[in-house]
Design brief:
Layout lengths: L10 H14 L3 H45 L17
Length: about 90
């Protein structure tokens, strides 16, 4: 069974909803439901993207700390922590 919410809207927004629903030949409730669902999907994707950016940022910090620690004590051999080594002459 669907859940119903009561929301107060400004007259201008209510008019825009009525016009948009009429242009699409759907009810105002259907238009509002579609808009809320789309906005929620967008917000969820945005949050997931930000969470992934946080993970990447932390991984870069960890990598920088590791490289800093590995190269702090001379002599540092880059081949021990770097996948790619410079070409040998």
């Amino acid at each position: 069974m669907p859940t119903t919410f009561e929301v107060s809207l400004d007259d201008d927004l209510a008019d825009r909803i009525r016009q948009a629903a009429k242009a699409r030949a759907i009810t105002e409730a259907e238009l509002i439901r579609d808009c809320v669902a789309q906005q929620l999907d967008t917000a969820n994707r945005h949050k997931a993207a930000l969470d992934r950016l946080d993970i990447v940022d932390q991984a870069l910090i960890d990598l920088a700390q590791y490289i800093g620690e590995a190269t702090a004590a001379p002599p540092a051999d880059a081949t021990s922590f770097c996948r790619y080594s410079p070409p040998k002459p």
